[in-house]
Amino acid sequence: MYLIFRCDCGRVLYAKKGVATRKCVCGKTLKVKSRRIFKRVETREDASYAVQQMQDEIYGNTDFKRASEL
After folding, report:
1. Looking at residue 26, which CATH number applies to its domain?
2. What is the 3-state secondary structure (H, E, C) of the chain?
3. Is 65's pLDDT higher than 80?
4. What is the pTM of this model?
């Protein structure tokens, strides 16, 4: 099972259940146990998709583009 939560910087992250800490790309180390859990999903692929969906809801279009598409 994977847990979906947010960092203080606003980024949505996921961690496997039972993991004590997770480091955000902003540099902050978070204690997973003390974070508010938004979703629980079964697989890593579902967790990745859930994070993408939440980021899209928060920040709008976050799709990656190739350099040729810019």
Report:
1. 3.90.820.10
2. CEEEEECCCCCEEEEECCCCEEECCCCCEEEHHHCCCCEEECCHHHHHHHHHHHHHHHHCCCCCCCHHHC
3. no
4. 0.79
